[in-house]
Amino acid sequence: MSPKLINRLLLAPAGLWLLTMLVLPIVVVVVFSFGERAQAGGYVPAFTLEQYLNLPARWKAFQNTLTLAPVGTLIVLLIAYPLAYYLAIKANPKWRTLLLILVIVPFWTSILIRSYAWIFILGGRGIPAILEFFGLEGIRLINTPFAVLAGIVYGYLPLMVFPIYVSLERLDKRLLEASADLGSPPWRSFLQITLPLSLPGVATGCMLVFILLMGEFLIPAMLGGGKVFFVGNALVDLFLQSRNWPFGSAVAVALVLVMLVSVTIYMRAIKRWGNGRDDVSLM
Amino acid sequence: MQSADTPTSNAGRAPIAEFRAATKQYGAVTAADQIDLAIMPGEFLSFLGPSGCGKTTALRMLAGFEVPSSGSVHLDGQQVNLVPPHKRPVNMVFQHYALFPHMTVADNISYGLRQQRPKPAAAEITRRVEETLTTVRLPGFEQRRIWEMSGGQQQRVALARALINQPKILLLDEPMAALDRKLRREMQIELQSLQRALGITFVLVTHDQEEALSMSDRICIMRAGRIVQIGTPRQLYDAPLNRYVADFVGKSNFFAGPLSQIDGPIGTVSLPGQSGQGRLGQGVQKGANVSLSVRPEQITLTHSGPGLEVLIKNRIFLGEHTEYLVNHGDLGDFLILVSRQGEALEGTFEPGEPARAHWKPEAALILNND
Amino acid sequence: MTDTPDHISAKAFMAELERYRKGSVSRRHFLGVTGLGMATTVLGSAMPSLITRPAYAQGSIGDSVVLATWPNYHDPASFDAFTELTGAAVQVNVFGSNEEMLAKLQAGGSGWDVFVPTNYTITTYVDEGLIDPLDLSKIPNYDAASFDERFASPGTVNGMLYAASKDWGTTGMAVNTSQTNGRVLTSWKDFWEITQAEFSGRTTVHDYQLTTIGNALKSFGYSFNSVDPAELAKAEELLLAVKPHLFAITSDYQPPMRSGDAWLAMCWTGDAKQLNKDIPEIQYILGKEGGEIWSDFYAIPKGAPHLDAAYALINFLLDPAINYKEAMFHGQPVADARVNAMMSAEMMADPIIHPAAELLSALEFGAAATLTDPNRAELMARFKSA
């Protein structure tokens, strides 16, 4: 067999997979987005821009998603970084594996059951009841954007912790000694050495969380009481309730475009921040 | 023992750094055990020993990365046990350099300057970086990336980075371990001349005796957390305290046996099938098990002269010298170094050929085994 | 918190947990929000060794049957009994809306054997060719004469029986009267008014366009099924004004009503009965302007993978004795006179299950046009995303 043929055979399964699982669905969605809804729901072939012209009807969902996804990512980052730092640098290596497992243990049960736990915790008999005991009355948590954010932080924490943990764990500890040796106090060593060198992990974590959050629908539905509406929820409704496949496809196309644009902006920003460093790549 | 061979040139001057019974324990393991040592300003001192002997621990106590479990470390007369690394006027060249991978050469080198408060002006930083790069013979490399540099160049950057704050002591932790042999030789010479030019005290940690011998003013031989002997390279070479030091400093042949007789400065060691004579080393006592140490270059190899009957086993041509591995029926294998001059007199010896080996009693040294 | 009755005892909690385990409570919400119908409860089949041996006919109808139904809608004991009898384990997929069921069937490959459509959807299923007529010879327990025509007739399309009546009910409001300070709610107008005033943040409405839009329309006196753009615009205006005052838009309102987070819920008969049974302060009210009356059916989708088991399950559930037990569990009225004959006088007189005739007469059945109307669907989406 010629090397060329071998190369092709090696790439064939992945190529076939990508073609059927990624390219074809995207083509279908794009084709549908120019179609019309059938009388009882579904799709009728057509060529119309009507679906795209109707996109402003979902403006609020895009607005919610584009607000809560970055804010959620940032909060997840702010909580995950110290945790990953502790695990990678401060924790006793003897316990490290156990602690890492503890980070993922909650994910052994279904998101549904965990969300119900949160519904109880944030509901009237949970935290608000405790706050009431301390004289803070009338605090509403469940079915608010705050509850959705809490759920997001909880659900996405490991996705952020692990890449950061890996980049911190790989960090050569002697670099910190070198920094200290050259006169830098620990906090400045963190800012000048640890933080920049863990940026690849931060970038990866943020990317993972942000992209998944853009498509999130379960957490807003469960903890937002149907009142905090993401693009994902709009899609679920369009395909599974009103069965408006063409409009659903147009919203999906718009979401993909928004995602591509925000990811591109993000990558540019990271690149600029990394000042062209080769060691700070995105993945 | 340690204080015995302090060089006299520094007599009367205050030490720049001092270990006083400094001990470092990790749980049950004692990495450094009761280290007493005074380091003099401007000297080039090496810690020499195999891995795990405590030399790196000693260096790290000096840098501030380790706090002594007991005893103390002093810099410039001040006890500094608890002073953190970033407040000590010493800088280190790390093993494998520990250069910051996300910074340019200039940023790496200027790092120390940029930690000073108040921060020096940008122009001053630029000037100093340029100057230091020139010192380590890397002018114009400011904007290079670390991974674009060869091992030797990285070594110079590490050196420049450690020198820019003009430390009172430059600590070097196996700085040349990652370099190939030829480059290592060059760097050794360069380091030595740099040290003389700058007048900074250098403290080097190495397991490479040749490196220590060629660069150091004084060498501190360590073993199992303790200092075994301190002295100039010549002192250590000519008057090793014991077999361990003789083995570590230069090459030597050892023949073990009890010390059977003492005649003034010369003793006699009973060896299998014969006896051997040599100068008495420090503290050897009659009846004790000792080693007769003979440097390979002290042995004369002849085709039919006096001495032991040996068989040539192997020959290695080293340029200036030829090293022969010979075998003696009772004493086993040992090495003999024959100079070009010696060869001119006796000719060469072929493997398998019988020969004679002998040395003068004054050329051999009787040493305690420990 | 003090004025909320502390009704969740350990026992009640365990009962809730059991219901959840059986897939009747919370799971539906998951399905409601994912719409995937993936969270399938496998009764018995997950743990085959625990199944008691069937009395007879083991394997003759296969070892499983898939049922797509509504939450809190079946007595788990019925399925256990069916499995014991036939050897077929019942997998239950729970759904939140008829739209969702339709979407799933339209997409194809649902894998269902039996599902539970509501009256007004059946003609659409027939028109779309998604269901087959029932073979009555395989459902000996179906006795057409004993069913109340009013509730059973939508099952017949073009003179053929496509769906067998399961039960019927109404859509009203459940209100926690301990919070009303004596005010009595009687209409949908009251419902939307109090939500924007004293009950702000305490009301839930269905995540379901038919009832949420329908009951908004009713408060203006329009038809529950209206697709008139002007009338829908009024309903939309009302819903958007109410939205900030809602506790949630959810069809899973039992948990917040029980916990005291919500005080008022757009509510179906069965849920009202279940809530009222545990918390008597929660009462069920039908809007005096009218609202929805509905009936649910058993039907078999085209291409059901376990057709014999599907008929066996429908026949089993329509056995009057089993149907009676089911009714006692879900708290909905049943259209089968044979079952009603077994009910106690008290049950038959229960105002939640059998509201007064004059209240019933004001109610409307949902219309097929309402199900498929794109404008109502879009209105609901705008309301949810607002």
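qc> Chain B touches chain A through 26 residues (CB under 8 Å).
qc> done
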